Amino acid sequence: MLVTTKSADALEQALNAGTAGALELQAQDGNVLIALPRVLYAKRFARESRVGFGD
Predict the structure, then answer these.
(1) How far apart, in Å, are the Cα atoms of 32 and each of 26, 28, 35, 50?
(2) Contact present, 26 and 7 (Cβ < 8 Å)
(3) Pick from 52, 28, 48, 33: which is nearest to 11 by CA?
(4) For position 55, what pLDDT does the model report?
(5) Distance from C-alpha of 3 to C-alpha of 27, rounded to nearest angstrom
(6) Torsion sign over Cα 34, 41, 28, 44
(7) Which of these, 7, 12, 22, 28, has the minimum number of CB atoms within 10 Å of its CB?
(8) For the segment 10-53, what is each residue's pLDDT rounded down to a tens digit?
(9) d(CA 38, CA 36)
(10) What is the pTM of this model?
(11) d(CA 26, CA 37)
């Protein structure tokens, strides 16, 4: 799912801190409530990134 930068930052901080409970993320499809102890994997990337050469 694609979420806002602010939500991705909040999720990363909560996972790094080992926070229990839940976190609400703002996604393109609407808000999603995540149970933090059940998160097994999270991948973060910038949608605007480009690979290649030139202007």
Answers:
(1) 7, 10, 10, 28
(2) yes
(3) 33
(4) 57
(5) 4
(6) positive
(7) 28
(8) 999 999 999 899 999 998 889 999 999 999 988 887 666 555 66
(9) 5
(10) 0.73
(11) 19
Task: Report residue 23: phi and psi, to 5°.
Answer: -140, 135
DSSP annotation string for 1-55: --B-HHHHHHHHHHHHHT--SEEEEEETTEEEEEEGGG--------TT---SS--
38: tokens are: 């059940």
For residue 23, what are its two tokens? 């976190």
Q: How many CB atoms lie within 10 A of CB 42?
A: 10
How buried is 45 (Cβ within 10 angstroms: 0-12 exposed, 13-18 middle, 19+ buried)? exposed
